[in-house]
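Intended use. Records like the one below are meant for learning the mapping from a protein sequence to its folded structure. Do not use them to infer anything beyond what is encoded.
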Amino acid sequence: MKRNQGFTLIELIIVIVILGILAVTAAPRFFNFAGDARVSVLTGLKGSVQGATQTVYAKAAIEGQLGAGPNTLNPSGITIVYGYPDATASGIIAAATLDASAITTTAASTDWVYFIGAANDIYLAQSSVVGTPASADAAGITAKNCYIRYTNAASAENPPTIATTVSGCDD
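Structure written out for the chain above:
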């Protein structure tokens, strides 16, 4: 008669410990929670900016301010172009009520930093991703490849462009 034997308790514990060590060392390579969080935050910011854009456009349409501008909505003081928020601090930054500062100032003390580009656009990024860059231009934001670019409306029929770049958010 053949006798069946199982594993001893010590052997099972050793296997579980070895599997635990492998899981602890290998899991961080497969899961990038920080990068996923940065992408989610940018997606949320994009939604907030889109919502603010539509709200401001509705208010501008009611007030009949859909011209080339820039105009100012009263009493909010938001600057608009073709009824949409302008790519400035008094435009989209104020419309979305962002805790943001220009990239040349104390970037680490706010949630967001921005830089106004030369082509009627504004770049927005998390200050924790950008840090405090030495350069006073969009390169401090765009070099990280984790930002939103808001471009002014070209006409009342063409809303502003809101594009996200997330290829560098995993770093």
